Amino acid sequence: MPTFILDLDDTLIPNGVFYLKSILDYMSFLYEHQDFNLHLPNVSDLMTIIIKENRKLVEKNGFVITTHPSAYEQVYRNLCDERGISPISEEIVEIRHMGEFPFRVDYSRYGLLPGVRETLEFLLEQGDELIVATKGEVGEQRRKMEETGLFEYIKEENFHVGLRDKIEIFGGLWYNRTGDIVYSVGDNAEHDINDATIFGMQGIYIPPFRNRMKVPVFVNPERVRRYERFSDIRENYDLLVNNHP
Question: Which of 31, 62, 117, 186 could form a cystine bridge with 163, CB 3.0-4.6 A?
Answer without folding.
Answer: 62
